[in-house]
Structure formats: C-alpha cells, structure tokens
Design a protein that fits this description.
Elements lengths: L25 E7 L3 H12 L4 E5 L22 H13 L4 E4 L2 E7 L1 E6 L4 E9 L3 E4 L6 H4 L4 E2 L2 H4 L8 E4 L5 H7 L7 E4 L10 H10 L2 E3 L3 E7 L2 E7 L15 E3 L2 E4 L2 E4 L2 H5 L4 E4 L2 E4 L12 E3 L10 H29 L1
Parallel strand pairs: 1-2, 1-6, 2-3, 6-19, 8-15, 9-10, 9-15, 10-11
Antiparallel strand pairs: 4-5, 5-6, 7-16, 12-13, 13-14, 17-18
Length: 342
C-alpha cells in the first residue's frame, strides 16, 4: 500500500465497526493527520485489529528541517524518512491511508468526516492530530533559511550549530529566555531587539543577559545576509553600533545562526467545530483534554501539536500511542456494555 491509497479494503482487522456493515467508508477510527502523533495512534490501533483510516494532508510541521534530533534510536533521521517508515509500518497491520484533507466533520452518534476530494468517511472514534503551522516574522530572507540556519529550537538544532555566532530575533520580551537558553550551545550570542523596545526588558532580564554574556542590539532587523548559501549576517534597518555598515545602509552584524520564535497557529478548527471545549493559552487556542487526549466531546481525541504547543516529535508519538491504546479500550468496553444491555 502506498501513501496515495484512497480506498483499500482492510482484511486484517476483524473488529466490529459499529457502522453500516460492509461499507467501504465506515471505520472504527479515523485519524486526521499523518505526522508522528497520527501515525503512532494508527499503529497501536492497527495492531489492536481496529479498522482504521489515516487522512494525511502531507503538511508536517518539521518539513523544512533536514534532520530531526532527540528521538532515541532515530536521532539524525530526516523527517521525510521518519514519516515514510511510519506509513510502511501501519500498512503492515491493515491501516489505510489516504492523501487528502479533512474539510469538515459532524457528529450524530458516529463522526462523519468530509474530505476535500469529495469522499465522506464515518468513524465511531475520531483522532485529530493536525498539528500547527509556524508563522515567521516578516523579515526578508527568514522563511527561505528556516530549518537550515534560521532555527527555533536549540534542543532540536543546537548541537549542529554549536560554538557558532548566534543571533536571537526578539519578537516579544519572552525572547530574552530564548537568548539565555541558547548560551548553552554558544558563548557568542546577540539578542536583536527588533520589535521589542529596550524599555520592555526588566532589570532582571538585563542582569541575566549581562551575566550570560549576551549582547543586546537595539533596532529593527531588515533582513539577512546570505553568501554561498549560508547565513553570514543580520542586517538592521538603519545604522547602529557593533557591526559593519554596507554601502546600502543598515548595520550588519556577522552571525552564522539565527534563532527565532515563530507564532504558533494551531490547526484546531475541526475540534472547535465538533464542540470541543477550547482554552486560550499564550501559544494559541487548544482543546481541553484529559491525560489520554480525550476532549470534552465523547469519542473525540486530540494528539500531538493539536493538543498543545510544546509537543516535539518524540512527545507527539507518545501522545498518539496513549490515545490509540485508550481508544481501543473505549471501543471494547462500549461493545461489551452494549452486549450486556441486549
């Protein structure tokens, strides 16, 4: 089975679907999202002999990165290879995967999920693992270098750029924390205040930055300097101090890696549409879930970055595994209770 499979009969799973018998579009579980969380949930469910469909729009958050780090036994693997391996694994257990996008979902006992291609699939339980989208500040050259030498997570990329000249692009006073953290990987760090005024930094911020040896550079950043396909500098919009002034104006500070905090935009629209209780956080609007990933709507689950901002790949996989095991238990106990009532 390939990732473009759209309707493959599952002969390996023998569980009762609870939907129309023999229907090709009726599943026990539909998983929306084919990243680490979604594939992990599907793997557990497939091994539990549950008829499962994964709907994958093919937009993983870490696609710009050449490698992923910090995942035991998979450290350094490319995200594309990781996902391809996951798709192969779920196929062994009869899990179906369709490359499509879920555009709507309703609940009338079961869940009905409408796909962009026009197909509607039904499920007794629904997992939303649609992740989030990173929105970068509008600085010239930033998006093109993201995942290469423009980075957001030192735990993901710090080792690879260790001891280089770092910059940190401040978009809020919270960027001070990022600048302090990255000093574990380099002692040559400059905090570019960009849209943050000097007055917004507290006395404690300034004391800590000074103690860590972080240079503070006021002024807005206009763009990046790239030579031979590598970052060599950060250019301010106007003059400044501590760098070179090119003929085109705007001080340039020599830097080899730039850390930035993107704005996280959770893809949680389907959860809200299905009536899940949502909560506002400093990082976006996320569903209220229990320790297993169950939302306030019975049968509706959230996993990975659809359930919270801070889920790295290894955490997302764990969340998916936990949800998959819990769903199997819910289905089993529900069927047994129904049999008792009969």
């Amino acid at each position: 089975m390939t990732e473009n499979t759209t309707n493959t009969t599952n002969t390996g799973n023998t569980g009762n679907t609870g939907n129309t018998p023999g229907s090709a579009d009726a599943y026990e579980v539909v998983v929306i999202g084919g990243g680490a969380a979604g594939l992990s949930a599907a793997l557990v469910l497939g091994r539990a002999r549950r008829r499962t469909l994964v709907v994958d729009a093919g937009e993983p958050r870490n696609a710009p990165a050449a490698h992923m780090q910090g995942y035991l036994s998979r450290d350094g693997m490319s995200p594309a290879e990781f996902l391809a391996t996951g798709r192969e694994e779920i196929a062994r257990y009869g899990v179906e995967l369709v490359r499509d996008r879920a555009v709507d979902a309703t609940r009338d006992g079961d869940f009905a999920v409408t796909l962009a291609g026009g197909r509607t699939v039904r499920a007794r339980q629904l997992v939303v693992a649609t992740g989030l989208k990173d929105e970068l500040p509008p600085v010239e050259g930033l998006a093109e270098r993201f995942g290469r030498d423009v980075l957001h997570c030192p735990y993901c990329h710090g080792w690879e750029v260790r001891d280089q000249a770092f910059g940190v692009l401040a978009t809020s006073p919270m960027s001070v924390h990022q600048a302090l953290i990255v000093t574990q990987w380099s002692k040559d760090v400059k905090l570019f205040l960009h849209t943050v005024g000097e007055a917004e930094l507290s006395d404690e911020d300034l004391r800590r930055l000074a103690a860590a040896g972080v240079g503070v550079v006021p002024g807005e950043v206009a763009g990046l300097v790239v030579e031979d396909d590598r970052l060599t500098g950060v250019r301010l919009a106007t003059g400044g101090t501590g760098g070179g002034v090119p003929a085109g104006g705007g001080t340039v500070h020599a830097r080899e890696a730039l850390f930035v905090a993107p704005r996280a935009v959770p893809r949680t629209g389907l959860l809200a549409r299905l009536g899940a209780e949502m909560t506002e956080t400093p990082f976006g609007r996320y569903p209220v879930v229990d320790g297993r990933g169950l939302t306030t709507v019975p049968g509706l689950w959230a996993a990975g970055n659809a359930s919270g901002f801070a889920e790295q790949v290894v955490n997302a996989a764990s969340r998916g595994y936990r949800a998959g095991a819990a769903i199997n238990g819910e289905l089993l106990m529900g069927d047994l209770d129904a049999a008792v009532r009969v």
